Amino acid sequence: MKVLGLSFGKVNANCDILSKEALYGIHAAYPQAEIRFINTQRLTIGRCIGCGACSTSLERGKDNDCVIKDDFQMVEDAVREADVIIVAAPVYVLQPVGQFKDFVDRFSCRHDVSAINWVLDRRRSGQLPGQAGDYPIERLKRRTVSYISVGGATTANWVSMGTATLHLFGISAMMKTIANYNAYKMGITGNPYLNQQLIDDMHELGRRTAEAFTLPDEEIEWFAPTGDGVCPVCHQNLLAVNGTTSVECPICGIEGKISIEGDKLHVVFPPEQQARARGTFVGLREHTVEIQGFGAICGPKIMANKDFLAQRMERVKQFENRIRE
Ligand SMILES: Cc1cc2nc3c(=O)[nH]c(=O)nc-3n(C[C@H](O)[C@H](O)[C@H](O)COP(=O)(O)O)c2cc1C
């Protein structure tokens, strides 16, 4: 079993402490596990520039490595190798630190299980060049993951999107999530070692994440020592509302129904909606089909308006000059 701890916090600070304790929990339960730890703070992980080179390259029968050369590749290789992953990130302004999202943006599009299988199916049928077997399919292997969101605030109010955003890390690669641990209150905790419950929770979080790797999905239990969320898939408490009794989980993209009984709110996400959550193959495939349809819709529209658009685009390209005229 290969285990990776990934900390986006300061070196030897709260995220490092908590994720390393989770790794100690794994080590105690599985002494044979190969454990690796990476702190990303001093690494250069640039943002996705949206060049599309990775998808184009895959559709041309080649590999889909990122064209930007920085420390991202090293971290990505470590994630690819791992079976069990513990991710810890500090909350900066309500969400995980930006470097985390930069990593997720570059990782996700290139490990989307549905999108890659879509291309490989077309390689097999000869619609796209290349051999399906050329793609290192082990990159899409099953992995288990747990997230630790670390915040300074005394209430959950100032870490409102911490665990939810961390959950995006494993969605496209269909990683099986075991816990979204909300470790806030660091401003008054001082140091995680001054709260033994926190450390015990980390050991259990680590152990369970590793154990889950050895279990079939249906036997895995969600680990929520600090309380569970309303969504039965991502276990978050965020809901998007539209003025009706229908609500959506913004993380999973699934629809639920709300009802109120006294001062209690009930939220039910039917099984058929849970089965199409964003982190399932069905959910990812909905998006692949949507994206593949863009060209057929926009191509003719753009061609039919080529001259008009070229002329209008001058407003954007010459903006600085025009605004001074
Ligand atoms: C720029 C910045 C913004 C922060 N924003 C928040 C916040 O919105 N909510 C919160 O609870 N803590 C916030 N914090 C506190 C950090 O989450 C906290 O110090 C955490 O322990 C940092 O992780 P580390 O110790 O592993 O580096 C912020 C810290 C910084 C530097």
Structure class? alpha/beta
The description of the largest β-sheet is:
6 strands, mixed
Broad shape: globular
Strand tally, please?
10
The topology string of helices and strands comes to EHEHHEEHHEHEHHEEEEHHHH
Could you tell me the radius of gyration in angstroms? 22 Å
CATH superfamily of one domain: Flavodoxin domain
- Oligomer classification: single chain
The number of helical segments is 12
CATH architecture of one domain: 3-Layer(aba) Sandwich
In which range does the helix fraction lie?
40-55%
Question: Any idea of the CATH topology of one domain?
Answer: Rossmann fold
CATH class bucket of one domain: Alpha Beta
- Per DSSP, what share of the residues sits in E-state strands of 2 or more residues? 15-25%
Explain this structure to me?
Helix 1 crosses helix 8. The protein has a domain at 2-227: Flavodoxin domain (Rossmann fold). It starts with a strand and ends with a helix. The strands form two sheets. Strands 1, 2, 3, 4, 5 and 6 form a six-stranded mixed sheet that branches. It has a four-stranded antiparallel sheet with strand order 7-8-9-10, with no helix packed on it. It is α/β, with parallel strands linked by helices. Helix content is 40%, strand content 18%. Residues 9-10, 13-15, 90-94, 150-153, 158-159, 184, 186 line the site of flavin mononucleotide.
